[in-house]
Amino acid sequence: LLHGIMAKPRVYITREVNDESMNLLKQTCDVSVWSGSAPVSKAELMKNLKDSQALFCTLSDKIDKEVLDVATNLKVIATMSVGYDHLDVAEIKAKGIRIGYTPDVLTDATAELTVGLLLATSRRLFEANEAAKTGGWSSWSPFWMCGPGLSQSTVGVVGFGRIGQEVAKCLKPFNLKRLTYYNRSERKEAKEIGADKVDFNELLTESDFIVVTCALTPETKNLFNQEAFKKMKKSAVFVNTSRGGVVDQPALVEALQTGEIWGAGLDVMTPEPLPLDDPLLKLKNCVILPHIGSASIQTRNKMGLMTAQNIVAVFKNEEMPAELIV
Ligand code: DGY
């Protein structure tokens, strides 16, 4: 019994992480790491969770009831992400397990990437680069490689939380005609940013650029369906850096193939990774990135550290830096 009391809590980490996070965890915990380059299998995860008090996971790890039912010693699940749609939050809370996540630290990096993806899509950066490298650039040509400009355009942001607001602030200096957002509730920050709240229909019909930064929830699942794409302008650029599940992907493929919309830039899709034979990868008017929204070096280090801090806080009976309260 004495040994049981003295023993450090065991934490299972589902990917190799930064040294700073590891060192912090090792001070308080016994650390065990899945060191594969692909996500840990469900069976291996379940085997390891049986006698773990903490889980350090990522968005690739689906933490459902089946997993939780074997994890009878878990006190805390800390995900190295701001999104938590991979966690069965209701079930976790019902079992009295605390949840840590990583808001704020990735807001700037994700907003940067969103702006980059928007411009890469509208100004056809990858297509143009490919042409320059493969002999497709025959001369400067008046209307070659043109795309819609941001200046004097209407941008609509769907989901006006931390990331959506930061994207809006970053886009503001591009001389927009109008900035709008669609969100469940009115956001007080919008006034200062200069964004108008509109209903979903208006956002779809009036926007030249539609930028999606909302969380994936039962309400936003497949929000962008065939009907939504049909309402968009034929010249619209659709950008998604939230979760693939907010889009009915076959409907998006069709909209891109038929010219219902002008183009799409996606950092997230269904499934991830996208199979190489997926129709989205064959479309010239679709830019695909491999879910790298938060992938700045500094940000990933901060996300790792915050995840570790969330775990340590629980065992030290301190306030978690970011506890998910729902
Ligand atoms: C998140 O944190 O949810 C992003 O998708 C990855 O950083």
TrEMBL record:
Which Gene3D superfamilies is this protein grouped with? Answer: NAD(P)-binding Rossmann-like Domain
The record's annotation in InterPro entries points to:
D-isomer_2-hydroxyacid_DH (IPR050223), D-isomer_2_OHA_DH_cat_dom (IPR006139), D-isomer_DH_CS (IPR029753), D-isomer_DH_CS1 (IPR029752), D-isomer_DH_NAD-bd (IPR006140), NAD(P)-bd_dom_sf (IPR036291)
> What residue stretches are annotated with the D-isomer specific 2-hydroxyacid dehydrogenase catalytic domain?
11-322
Keyword Hydrolase attached: no
Ranges for domain D-isomer specific 2-hydroxyacid dehydrogenase NAD-binding:
115-293
Which UniProt keywords are present, listed alphabetically? Oxidoreductase
> What PROSITE patterns does UniProt report for this protein, alphabetically?
D_2_HYDROXYACID_DH_1, D_2_HYDROXYACID_DH_3
* One Pfam family in the UniProt entry: 2-Hacid_dh_C
State the superkingdom: Eukaryota
- Name the family: Belongs to the D-isomer specific 2-hydroxyacid dehydrogenase family.
> Which protein are we looking at?
Glyoxylate reductase/hydroxypyruvate reductase
Q: Which organism is it from?
A: Nicrophorus vespilloides (Boreal carrion beetle)
Q: Which gene encodes it?
A: LOC108569071
